[in-house]
């Protein structure tokens, strides 16, 4: 029993003794080794082309796109008119709607013709009265001429006095003058009738040329006037029509680049509404004045294609193309995304044969659409990196994205 009790006492835990310290250094060593392996793997992958990029070739300016300048503007119509009447009157009927095709001389609206018809009836009555006076004056003039002829024969025979003959001659001449006056009055009445007819015709509003109605401005019952009478109760036009065959483009070109534009220069126009549709054309004229506020010069451009999709006030981008046979612009053309800025300088990253990149300073030129001209520092055929990431530096290795063009 005594030995057994001693053995049990020896198995008890002595809680008053201090605990032994735990050994943590193996875990710290393992973590450090793992970190070194990760850094080494990253460095290895970076050296093997871990940065994925897209590339594009540098192309000589003479090949591919021949655009030397881009500008934006709007489609405008050279023939556009807000049609009104020549007189003030109340609208009786409007015969147009937006989008309707009209021909030259087609009736667009009519005004109330009551007053004009009354004026014409009065002019007709005055003409009839003047013509009746002519008939009476002619009869009296014939009678006076016959009487003067008889008295002349009697005066030669001295059967009547000379005074009687002279009186008959004077009466004949007076009646002839009255006849001429009546004839002139009849002509004046006829002219007044023609004016009254024009007044009736002015109550009909016609299209001055063939085109498309783009706005309807008046309704039956409204007062229309060629001059604004003030307030909001008087219209100044029936509607607006546009000759779609007269559509052209007006663009604003910066003063610094207007020297590159010449008359009859070929262009390519792209409507904002149809970005995949390229419309050929040419420069009509350069307007000889500048906008001091925007520092631009307006250029008129003709479109070679006529299409219902082209409508006024559409936004358009115009690329001015170099003429055939002209010397090609200097430098090469690369996508604008290839030109980056490093330390305030324009640079590109050129891809080498070992998939490493070379950071190269370049002299960038104008931007034409999505492309950029490079005047110096790059030659045609070299491959450049698009959208280079900020961490990309000289000598780094890269790999191409799987869906990137080679």
Automatic annotation (TrEMBL):
InterPro entries: Beta-barrel_RND_2, MdtA-like_BSH, MdtA-like_C, RND_pump_MFP. Belongs to the membrane fusion protein (MFP) (TC 8.A.1) family. This is Efflux RND transporter periplasmic adaptor subunit. Gene3D superfamilies: 2.40.30.170, 2.40.420.20, 2.40.50.100, Helix hairpin bin. Its main location: other. Residues 333-387 form the Multidrug resistance protein MdtA-like C-terminal permuted SH3 domain. Residues 249-323 form the CusB-like beta-barrel domain. Residues 79-225 form the Multidrug resistance protein MdtA-like barrel-sandwich hybrid domain. It is found in: Cell envelope. Keywords: Coiled coil, Membrane, Transmembrane, Transmembrane helix, Transport. Residues 393-406 have a biased composition (Basic and acidic residues). Residues 120-192 form a coiled coil. PANTHER family: HLYD FAMILY SECRETION PROTEIN, MULTIDRUG RESISTANCE PROTEIN MDTA. The lineage of its organism: Bacteria, Pseudomonadati, Pseudomonadota, Gammaproteobacteria, Lysobacterales. The chain crosses the membrane at residues 25-45. It holds the Pfam family BSH_RND. Residues 385-406 are annotated as: Disordered. It comes from Novilysobacter avium.
């Amino acid at each position: 029993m005594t030995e057994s009790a001693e053995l049990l006492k020896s198995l008890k835990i002595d809680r008053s003794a201090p605990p032994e310290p735990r050994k943590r250094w193996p875990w710290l060593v393992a973590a450090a080794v793992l970190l070194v392996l990760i850094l080494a793997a990253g460095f290895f992958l970076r050296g093997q082309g871990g940065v994925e990029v897209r590339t594009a070739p540098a192309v000589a300016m003479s090949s591919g796109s021949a655009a030397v300048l881009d500008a934006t503007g709007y489609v405008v119509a050279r023939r556009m008119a807000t049609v009104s009447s020549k007189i003030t009157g109340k609208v009786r009927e409007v015969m147009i709607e937006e989008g309707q095709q009209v021909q030259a001389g087609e009736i667009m609206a009519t005004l109330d013709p009551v007053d004009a018809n009354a004026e014409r009836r009065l002019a007709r009555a005055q003409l009839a009265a003047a013509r009746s006076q002519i008939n009476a004056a002619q009869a009296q003039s014939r009678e006076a001429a016959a009487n003067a002829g008889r008295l002349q024969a009697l005066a030669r025979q001295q059967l009547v006095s000379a005074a009687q003959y002279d009186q008959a001659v004077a009466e004949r001449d007076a009646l002839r003058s009255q006849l001429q006056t009546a004839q002139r009055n009849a002509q004046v009445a006829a002219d007044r009738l023609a004016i009254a007819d024009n007044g009736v015709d002015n109550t009909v509003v016609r299209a001055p040329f063939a085109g498309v109605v783009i706005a309807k401005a008046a309704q039956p019952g409204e007062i229309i006037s060629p001059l604004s009478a003030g307030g909001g109760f008087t219209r100044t036009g029936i509607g607006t029509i546009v000759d779609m065959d007269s559509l052209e483009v007006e663009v604003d070109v910066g003063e610094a680049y207007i020297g590159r534009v010449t008359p009859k220069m070929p262009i390519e126009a792209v409507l904002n509404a149809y970005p995949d549709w390229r419309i050929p054309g040419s420069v009509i004229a350069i307007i000889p004045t500048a906008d001091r506020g925007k520092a631009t010069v307006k250029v008129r451009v003709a479109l070679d294609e006529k299409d219902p999709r082209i409508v006024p006030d559409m936004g358009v981008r115009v690329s001015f193309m170099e003429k055939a046979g002209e010397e090609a612009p200097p430098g090469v053309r690369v996508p604008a995304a290839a030109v980056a800025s490093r330390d305030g300088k324009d640079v590109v990253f050129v891809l080498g044969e070992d998939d490493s990149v070379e950071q190269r300073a370049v002299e960038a030129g104008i931007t034409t659409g999505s492309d950029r001209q490079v005047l110096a520092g790059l030659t045609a055929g070299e491959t450049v990196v698009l959208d280079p990431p900020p961490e990309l530096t000289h000598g780094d290795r890269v790999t191409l994205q799987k869906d990137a063009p080679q």
